[in-house]
Design goal:
The complex is a heterodimer of chains A (361) and B (315). With 361 residues, chain A is an all-alpha fold. Chain A has one domain. Helices cover 64% and strands 2% of the residues of chain A. With 315 residues, chain B is mostly helical. Chain B folds into two domains: 96 residues, Alpha-Beta Plaits (2-Layer Sandwich), CATH 3.30.70; 128 residues, no CATH class. The radius of gyration of chain B is 30 Å and the shape is rod-shaped. In chain B, strand 3 and strand 4 form a beta hairpin. Helix content of chain B is 45%, strand content 9%. The chains are: A mainly alpha (361), B mainly alpha (315). The complex binds iron/sulfur cluster (SF4) (2 copies). One iron/sulfur cluster binds next to helix 3 of chain B.
Chain lengths: 361, 315
Amino acid sequence: MFIWSFIITLVVILTYAIFVVYAERKAAAFVQDRLGPVEVGPKGLLQTVADLLKLLQKEDILPTYSDKILFRLAPWLIFTAIFWGFTALPWVPGLIGSNLPSGIFMIFAVVSLDVIGLFMVGWGANNKYALFGAVRSIAQIISYEIPLGLCLLAVVTFTGTLNLQEIAQQQAIDSTFHSYLFGIPGIDVSAWGGIFTWNVIRFPILLPVAVLFFITTLAECNRAPFDIPEAESELVAGFHTEYSGFRFGMLFLSEYAMMLLVAILLVFLFLGAWSSPLPNVAGVHLYDWTSGTTGHWSSYAWSIFWLGLKTVTVVFWQIMLRWTFPRLRVDQLMHLCWKLFLPLSMLLVLASAIWKWFLIF
Amino acid sequence: MAVKHSTYRTNFIIIVGSLLRALFLAWKHFKSAIHRKKVLNIDDPAYFKQAAGVVTTLYPYESIPVPDNGRYRLHNEMEDCIVCDLCAKVCPVDCIAIDPIKSTVEIGKTSDGSTRRIYAATFDIDMAKCCYCGLCTTVCPTESLTMTKAYDYSEFDIRNMVYHFADLSPEESVVKRKEWDEAQLAKQAAKATPAVEVKTESTVAEGEAPAKPKPFIPKAMPPKVAIPIKKTEGDAPAASTEDKTEEAPKPKPYIPKAMPPKVVIPVKKEEPSTTNTESSSTPDETPKPRAVPPKIKIPLPKKKDDEAEKGGTVE
Ligand code: SF4
Ligand code: SF4
């Protein structure tokens, strides 16, 4: 099964990277009243494929005074770390690369290896911009991992498990987990399913947590408005300034893979994972109609559809945010993290723990 | 507190409100991307009334219309060009190169009635140098040189930016040049026999004439342009013209600088007169404005009286 998971992950990441780059360019263009790529393929759909072909043919430049081992190794390390994070993601009910009891914990542990890779990139390239970018990136990622971890803690407090498979299952209708309408003990909506069993709805304290999670993960994947590690206007291209050709492609791919990873995590933790958003209310079995039969291929198809749809929505807002907000200054970034998000996330963990205590008793 | 954190905005409501407003604005633009603004010229009344939408003009497939008086690529209608060289002289960046060859016969009439007597073996405009000042089109007496609406003519090879308007092929130009030289020789020979008095001068001229005209034609053109016209009309000053051609090189150096202002004014005078009544007198007048040669006449002791005024005016 893990072979399937491996293949699916790889294929998903690659196709996703190709089309999200296109989507990003299109969205940027639309926000700015332009058209974006229109030439290659219908509506410019194959633009990224053409770019990729070009990228693969580029000369692979190895700077003379770089640390060759680190320089060569770093992209692999970064990509591996992020790819590793995907192993604990259940794509459909039952299909998971590594069914660890501590899935989320593992994901965030290995994704943190990313930081080491980034530092290898910045140090190995022996370029001041690369080093600046790497230093900024590390400072940012390490800082934002704290509120991010606390956000996860808030979710885990509620779900009582670290296994993503179980977290996903809890939000489906056929679970033993009890859901109450808007987290108010008394009205049991476990049978309704759909949007009412999403974590953010049945436990509304998770709504601000989800927002916080979304923002901190933006910082984790170095995306605007937290893209100071590769701030084009200041640092040429940031930590990957010296990279070209295939190695640059790897770094690029890792970045977009990271984006996908956090988007999927957001969906799993807060937005009902792969279950349908339509509830079974008042005798209309919308949820059942849009979920397929358990164990049947139709349930897999529906799962992939809903998971994909939700993930794409999250990714879309990641993109929209990038083209809406200006980049934060380094000090503003730290201010935001340490003085705002950290206390806020602590409060939220506390609040969710108390709320959960009320739900149980 | 407010002073301490002056660089950070701390009002939560304001911050979140402005962030959401920004996001809403971005979303509005994103949504309106299903519409496209029509490609209109700015003088279209609907230009500012278009609703939101994509503003991109997909250039090679569509373009904003250029007004009819667009001033871009130059075009020379050789049929109308009298190869007067004014445009080449006035051009501030020297991007027009003309190599004229005088014709032994009248080539034809331009559309405004001017007589064409000179071929252009070369008429090259280097659009890569052109600064689109339009001076050349202003001075052109026959309005053969115009600026057109065409603006997309970039080239991969800069040599292709040179536009050739010559009305003679290289072979033809050799023939025409020879014809002209022969005609000149014949004329001088004819003159040499009857007029004894003039002979002393013309013989001097004759000796050099065959050899010289060719080398300095490219450079020496300005003077020649004007004179031949006179010559054909009135045969008397024939001898003088030859002398002029010989001596033409001298005045040239200061022509380029001195010429332009003087050129412009006479052209205006001339145009009405040529087109209208004085068919016979035009030749006399046309040369004057264009004629740089006047200077030539000063060295000449004999013919000075004809053109003393001219020389005076030009210099
Ligand atoms: S437009 Fe100006 S620069 Fe261009 S050829 Fe005419 S005179 Fe020269
Ligand atoms: S000014 Fe006009 S008529 Fe004279 S040479 Fe130039 S294009 Fe021809």
